[in-house]
Structure formats: structure tokens, C-alpha cells
Design goal:
Number of domains: 1
Mean pLDDT: 83
Distance between the termini: 22 Å
Order of helices and strands: HHHHHHHHHHHHH
Shape: globular
Oligomer: single chain
Structural class: mainly alpha
Length: about 290
Amino acid sequence: MIFLLLSILFSSITVSFFKLFEIKNVVTFQAIIANYLTCSIIGTLFAKHPLYSAELWQADWLIWAFLLGSLFISIFYAIALTAQKISVSTSMVAAKLSVVIPVLVAYFFYNENLGFLKIIGIFLSLFAVYFISRKESGEASASLSLLVLPIIVFAGSGSIDTLLKFMEHSFIPAYSADDLVTTSFFFAFVLGVLILLVSYFRGGIKLSSHSLLWGVLLGIPNYFSMYFLVETLGAFDATYIFPLNNIGIVALSTLLAYWFFKEKLNKQNMLGLGLAFLAIILISFS
């Protein structure tokens, strides 16, 4: 269970970095690119065998790893914007409630059972994302204009989980989860560099060594949040681990935001948080 607790801790620290970026005037996208380079390097160092070999570049799952890497960097950026412009708790609730998407995909494409409690949990999750994103009445117009961010996080995180499930079903154990995830981190880094180069030569940005350094620091908890989750799944059943992991991350990230960044939750946010916990439990344990 120590691995599960470490996964929750590192995941919560990761999203809290985005609030810190706002305070430290970090260019978020540049930091995210450096973060994925760090994840790739750490993943390569921890690999049980050499990565990036000729065999890997001929693997039939490579195109899926590239797609996963594209989702990694784009949705991670959406999570960062949500944490900065709305709240840390909103970004984590939207990301963790996205479990409903792979559940629906599993029902329609893998013939897995979708019980009554799961259906209730799915509907509750939609209300939870809405309420956790709401501001006080004086800020309602700003909240409505920003509502698209948690929706993107919700849909994108669900797509990542769905793609991971597909890759796990199709390519593991022929290849290890470390191979797939580390390669996806590398593709996320490459894609980010390409976007950065295009923006740089168009004269739209300036590289910030300050932001790149913060990105390196971000990559450490980001990698280990995934590493310890994979280690936990190797010892316990996923239907038991995922709800505990999701609830723990939402709770701890909310507490960290309250303690360190003085984020406040209004009554609607508290209702959304409660609905989120209930939805995760219903979807995961039913």
C-alpha cells in the first residue's frame, strides 16, 4: 500500500506545481515540454532493458504511442490551465471522473457489464464536473466562459485511459507497460519541441531557462506518480486500486490547494466534490 500512497502524493504534488507556476511566472507550455524530457530520461534509466532500440522503432504499437504522447502533452496543458484559471480541485475532479469514458467504451466494445449503479455514477459525474467548476454569483459569467476547460480535461483524460486500455489489451505483456509509457513520454516531448520551434521561428515566443528548469522539477513527481501506480497495480486488483487512487488524489490535491494556495470552495464546489467521490465509488466498485 505504500506504493499507492506514494502515487497519490506525487500526483497531487504534480498538479500543485501548476499553481506554483502561476506564482513564479513560469511559461507553462515550455515547462511541460521539459517535464516530458525528464520523464523520458528517468523512464529510460529505470527500464529493465535498453529502450529506443531498432526493434522498438519497428513495433506495431508505435503509432499508438505517438497518439498517446500527443494526448499527454495537450491534456496536461489543459489540466495546467484549469488549475491556474479555475482551481486545482476542479482540474483533478475533471481528470479523475473521466473514468466514465473507458467504462462506456468497455461496455460498447469489450462487452463488459454496465450495471445500474455505474449508470447512476456516470450521471453524477457530469453534475460533479459542473458544480466543482462554478464560482460565486458575482463570478458566474467568467465561470461559464471557462467551463470548456474542465470539459476538455474530462474528455481528454478519458481518451487517454481508453487508449491505455486498448494498448494494454492489444500489446501487453508482449511489451511492458514501462516501454509503452516511456515511449509515449518521449513522443510528447518531441511533439512539444516541434510546436515550440514553429512558434520560435515565427517570433511568437522566447525561450525561458527559468521555465525549463521548473519543468525538469515537474517531471520528477509526474514520472513517479505513474511509476508507483503501475507498481501498485502489479500487486492489487485494478477495481480496488483505481477508486482509492482517484479519491485520494482529489482529496489531497484539494487540501494542498487550500493549505498552500488559499483556494476556497463555495457551497456548489463542495456539492460537486461530494458528488465526485460518490460517482467514483459507484463507477469503480459496482
